[in-house]
Design goal:
This protein is of the alpha+beta class. The protein has two domains: 92 residues, no CATH class; 176 residues, no CATH class. Helix content is 38%, strand content 20%. The strands form three sheets. It has a four-stranded antiparallel sheet. The chain has a four-stranded antiparallel sheet with strand order 4-9-8-7. A hairpin with a 2-residue loop joins strand 2 and strand 3. The radius of gyration is 23 Å and the shape is elongated. The two termini are 44 Å apart.
Length: 287
């Protein structure tokens, strides 16, 4: 009986941690060159824009020269313009940066270095608009040099910073459940995503409603839960697990002022929700 209960706790504990491990931090920041606001997400040690860049640079254009396409899909850039288009502190991601992102999305190592289409349905679903990774790659179309634009809402192409002579590496997506990797003439016009590798260079917008960040669960509580399970102290394990679940359902406490936290603490005590009060008090103590 004890063994069954122990296994049950470990299963619940594992599921809770898996869920938290997949959550992403979404941060909004401003490009001071034109005051446009973008959103980014952190993958490992790199911050990726989750929207296409929409900044006039060199010969960049809106698809079909329609401003509404720029609003939704960003601008299209020749490679030379793409190299210098990102905001200060940001840069055009390299072919290597893209491969690391693709690995984070679940692309198998054995195909990540391949050219042409690398088919993996799970990875594809993670990176397209609305996918779990938060990258939100768009079908923003492209232009082949001075020729007419192609395939908006059906396909999208993105430059990397990695060049080879008159060509550069790029990425291409459509509905074939994969990401295409190859080189193309630098005169083609593709979309741009920017990356930042130094969090201190991100010009964050720090208002409560503009920073969306899932709460980080207390690591000390996780250690206490493991210890309680090891000691077969199931009452204590239940108490700690309840606290961890409570944390997952709380709003992001780090964005609240001290005055707001004290008000929440008072409300929690009045409601006799002492588990919630304990979590809020820990955040107050950090200040």
């Amino acid at each position: 009986m004890q063994l069954i209960r122990n296994v049950s706790f470990l299963l619940i504990f594992s599921l809770l941690f898996l869920k938290v491990g997949k959550s992403q931090d979404f941060i909004k920041f401003m490009d001071h060159r034109d005051d446009k606001v973008y959103q980014c997400v952190q993958l490992d040690n790199v911050f990726w824009m989750t929207e296409n860049l929409n900044f006039l640079n060199g010969e960049s254009k809106c698809y079909q020269n329609k401003p509404e396409n720029c609003e939704k899909y960003g601008m299209l850039y020749k490679w030379e313009d793409a190299k210098t288009a990102c905001p200060e502190g940001w840069e055009l991601p390299s072919d290597y940066d893209w491969k690391m992102m693709e690995r984070s999305a679940g692309m198998p190592d054995e195909i990540v270095d391949n050219r042409k289409f690398r088919i993996d349905q799970k990875m594809y679903q993670n990176v397209i608009d609305g996918g779990e990774l938060g990258i939100n790659l768009l079908f923003s179309g492209w232009m082949a040099g001075a020729k007419k634009p192609y395939h908006i809402n059906r396909r999208g192409a993105y430059w990397t910073s990695t060049e080879s002579g008159s060509k550069a590496w790029y990425r291409f997506i459509d509905n074939r459940q994969g990401i295409f990797r190859d080189m193309e003439n630098k005169q083609y016009m593709y979309a741009v995503r920017c990356v930042c590798k130094d969090e201190n260079k991100i010009n964050r917008i720090a208002t409560d409603d503009q920073v969306v960040r899932p709460i980080k669960q207390d690591k000390s509580l996780k250690k206490e839960l493991l210890k309680a399970i090891d000691n077969e102290d199931y009452n204590e394990a239940e108490r700690i697990l309840s606290l961890l679940k409570k944390q997952s359902n709380l709003p992001e406490l780090q964005t609240y002022s001290l005055e707001e936290l004290n008000k929440q603490l008072e409300d929690a005590i009045m409601q006799e929700d002492y588990e919630k009060a304990e979590i809020i008090q820990k955040e107050i103590d950090k200040r």
